[in-house]
Please model this.
Amino acid sequence: MQNQNDFTFDTIKFAQLPQFVKKLHARGMHYIPLVDPGISAGEPLGTYSPYELGLSENIFIKDSLTGKPFIGKVWNPNSTVWPDFTHPNISHYWMTNFDEFHRQVEIDGAWIVSPFPNEIQPTNLLEKRILSPNLPTHTSE
Amino acid sequence: MNEVSNFWDGTHNGLCYNSTYDHPPYVPHVEGGKLNFKTICPSSLQYGGLHYNLHNLYGTLETRITSM
Model:
């Protein structure tokens, strides 16, 4: 990912990613990246289409007072907005993002869930997990 | 991350509006003691209505749209 933004890949450090995925496919394997619903809202204008397309299609969750996209923050460098999956036009928006990314990297699917990053494991539970190989280091919620 | 997860408690200053939905008279025993803990403000608006009413559907609907 570039700046930890959805539908991007680091074209310097992972410049060979498209070829790598093709190689995986040739060996009968799949490539499924994690996709977070949070879309970066802090990229320079004209550089990040998932944000700009969302604005033009008016499909981000809104601040109730201003009517503008609700601004929060997750992994993205400055700020984050979230697609409104109740919006009737959302599938066009979401598919377009996947489609454009797929033209660059032939992903086979998307892992659309990830553990709550601020989840704090109770110490005793963590110790148990370290002691027992049967308990995974993290489980989905 | 589709809780909806947010590193801020609502907005950048950790506040939401002084509204019934952001500060309901009864708050269940949720982590952080407030509805906007590590998520967006419940008063936020979606096409389908208030986020207050749709919060727990976010991941399900994302799954549905992604699988289309």
User: Anything to note?
Assistant: Residues 90-104 of chain A form the longest helix (15 residues). Chain A touches chain B through 38 residues (CB under 8 Å). Residues 17-131 of chain A form one domain. Residues 115-135 of chain A have pLDDT under 50 and may be disordered.
